[in-house]
Amino acid sequence: MKRRLPRTLAQALFVLWAAYTVSFAVLYLLPGDPVTIMAAGGGDASSVSPEQIAELRARYGLDRPVPEQYATALWNAVRGDLGTSVHGGQPVTRLIADALPATLQLAGATLLLALPLGGAVALLGTYTRRRWLRQLLLSLPAAGVSAPTFWVGLLLVQLVSFRWGLLPAFGNDGWSSLVLPSVTLALPAAGLVAQVFAKSLRTALAEPYIDTARAKGAGRARVHLRHAARNALAPPLTVAGVLTGGVLAGSVVVETVFARTGVGRLTATAVTTQDIPVVQGLVVLGACVYVTTHLVVDLLHPLLDPRIAATERPAVTT
Amino acid sequence: MTELTTPPRTRAATPEDPATAKPAAPRPGTPSRARRALAFWLGRPGLLLSAALLALVLLAALFPALLTSRDPLAGIPGERLLPPGADHPFGTDQLGRDLYARVVHGSALTLRATGLAVAVGLVAGSLVGLLAGYLGGRADDALMRLADVLLAVPGLLLSLALVTALGFGTVEVAVAVGVTSVAMFARIMRTEVQRVARTPYVEAARAAGVRWYTVLLRHVLPNAAAPVLVYAAVDFGAVVLQVSSLSFLGYGARPPQPEWGALVASGRDYLAPAWWLTTLPGLTIAATVLAANRIARALDGEARETP
Question: According to Swiss-Prot or TrEMBL, what is its membrane topology (chain B) (predicted)?
């Protein structure tokens, strides 16, 4: 890993830079003048006077040539300044930092629910000999992946909050308000984990070393957990890395449904009011999350599978 | 656990497969083929149901008048918020509009947006993948790094950024969602093109002096298209979800227009008094996505996937 780390870090920095550049290109260079869009704020563009537009243009430096704009913006971004919101005027980094804790709680709770649930469904589904249970368990993940999150969230609110009056439906105060949103996000995430894990478990169970383990007299549970599951862990781990980004994106929908504050809500508001600097900052945040989780997954892989670490070790020194 | 001891089957269950033809058809003839097709479908009730449901949704999108005679936009003031019943199978909304008619008419908008999004991803992604895989070298590197970056930003976030730049509306949402799947299409196409480009017949065509773009379009593309088309089917369900999520958030169809995600969003204000306003359109989306995913799985190789 030590040898690979600099290259992985360089790749991570490249992805961040490229994500910034692509979002800059998309948001500032596409047809549709960003200043008019921003000044109108998602409303009617004709209500903005030419003086206002000129004033905005000068304030955001959009009257200068594009390469210069890009260079200034990138230099500011490197120093941690992602610009200011068009509507509130607050720095984008401040807005994101304020919204982040609530969403991190949500993401953490979601992953804590989704990973054990998905893992358990896949393990039990491939382990059981009862045909009906097997078919039921292995068709559940497909249903979890197919249900729209906004709909699942509203169903939960309807049943748990309104009909049974058990948990608060909206807002984010305390742990009780975290349950329904995280369950909503965890169901599709668990479905994805279960699908991938079940598939890799089936592949692992068909390997010759499983026959060897059985021939040596290892019990079914032991073969399943010690031999098959351990070797089948790599694909679901990779998917879990992707899921973290997916949870961030899913929070846009879920925080709207449950009227929570957080990064998702900030995204929805920024898109609705076409607040371009904030949207760009959020895209960069998404890329950051992706890059970080990939680094973690990369570091975890050799721990799970010693073969990966073995191939990386320089042969001369050992 | 019996299937673990048997040797791995390779698509044994598909009706065209000659392996299954021998036991099923003792004498050659046409009826055996039909019987095999029948056995294939009857052995998979879920797949049959999925195909029927998708056909119904397609029918609703193309000829909504066949499924309902009511106007999705005209409300009857005396029939506000009626629960589902014989007269209104899905109930009525706060303006007295028939929800079933709105869902039926809404399928056209949702499916059109989904089709457009998949088409954008398929065409743009295939083109990128074709060029990257065939040209190789620097062009390959540049195009694939770009695809990596598109994959690095979570899909919904990327399409939200695009919607911010493009503006709101069904077409804009469809394009934005389509762009997010370009990278996957490009990757799949590139891998396949690299495989095909090494085959002897492509080498022969090049040796015979055929121009490079003719080789690409006549020899490489037709032989490399299958995996991308399968992925288009796989992508379909996810795109329905993304399109309806964006219109749920309010960036798609404008309010009076019925669209599945927008229907759920407008029912949100009547969650406690009228459960059907959110539940039934949402159920339609979930069922459609489930059906599309089931069919995609069948196309992707039935025998390997089923437990």
Answer: Multi-pass membrane protein
Residue A62: both structure tokens together: 């959009």
Which 3 state secondary structure label does DSSP give A33? coil
Q: Which residue has the tokens 């469809």?
A: B174
How much is the pLDDT for B9? 42
Beta bridge partners of A220: none
Q: Is A288 on the interface with B (CB under 8 A)?
A: no
CA dist A161 and A183 (Å) reads: 14
User: Is A84 in a helix, a strand, or coil?
Assistant: strand
| A137: nearest Cα among B305, B307, B285 | B307
**d(CA A172, nearest CA chain B) in Å:** 19
Of B249, B251, B307, the CB nearest to A134: B307
Residue for token pair 């010690």: A226
* CATH class for the region spanning A92-272: mainly alpha
Both tokens of residue B199?
């085959």
Q: Which of A93, A1, A107, A88 is nearest to A41 (CA)?
A: A88
Contacts of B8 in chain A (CB under 8 A): 206
CB atoms within 10 A of CB B140: 17
Token pair 């068909």 is at which residue? A206
The closest of A198, A104, A190 to A149, measured between CA atoms, is A190
CB B40 within 8 A of CB B15: yes
Q: Is A262 helix (H, G, I), strand (E, B) or coil?
A: coil
Residues of chain B with C-beta less than 8 angstroms from the C-beta of A162:
271-272
Handedness of CA A195, A199, A200, A201 (dihedral sign): positive
pLDDT (tens digit per residue) in B268-289: 888 878 888 888 999 999 999 9
CB contact under 8 A, A26 and B293: no
Whether residues A27 and B307 touch (CB distance < 8 A) is answered with no
Name which of B127, B214, B115 is nearest B171 in CA terms: B115
- pLDDT tens profile A147-206: 899 999 999 988 888 888 788 777 777 788 888 999 999 999 999 999 999 999 999 999
Nearest to B162 among A26, A139, A148 (CB): A26
Closest Cα to residue B239, out of B295, B296, B289, B171? B289
